[in-house]
Write a structure and sequence with these properties.
Distance between the termini: 34 Å
Number of strands: 11
Oligomer: single chain
Order of helices and strands: EEEEEEEEEHEE
Radius of gyration: 13 Å
Structural class: mainly beta
Helix content: under 10%
Strand content: over 45%
Length: 125
């Protein structure tokens, strides 16, 4: 089970840090990712870390502003979001799956079979 937290409201240019805690199983050998879904839009890939090798991958719209990380000792993953924009407003979901999906598959929702409940991020002045 995945539990996301850390969402909230922030002004443009601000920062937020999302966290996702895994319970019930270790995610050491899992690929983990963050997705987001804005109202009226499909859920989209934000960032991911493969199990092995530990490459990180980002959507072009967040590259350079967001940083994904994982702490296997604490069984958690995080998403540091800086320089937030209004278009980053969405519900953010953490996701995980065992092993390594193909790179072409990693950015799709179908690659993941474990999802958190979502946390709202609102960027507005």
């Amino acid at each position: 089970q995945l539990q996301a937290s850390g969402g909230g409201s922030v002004q443009p240019g601000g920062s937020l840090r999302l966290s996702c805690a895994a319970t019930g199983r270790a995610i050491t050998t899992y690929t983990v990712a963050w997705f987001r879904q804005a109202p009226g839009k499909e859920r989209e890939f934000v960032a991911g870390i493969r199990y092995s090798p530990r490459g990180t991958y980002y959507a072009g719209s967040v590259s350079g502003r967001f940083t994904i990380s994982r702490d296997d000792a604490k069984n958690t993953m995080n998403l540091q979001m800086n320089s937030l924009k209004a278009e980053d407003t969405a519900v953010y979901y953490c996701a995980a799956r065992p092993g390594n999906p193909a790179l072409s598959f990693l950015r799709t929702t179908m690659a993941y079979d474990n999802w958190g409940q979502g946390t709202q991020v609102t960027v507005s002045s």
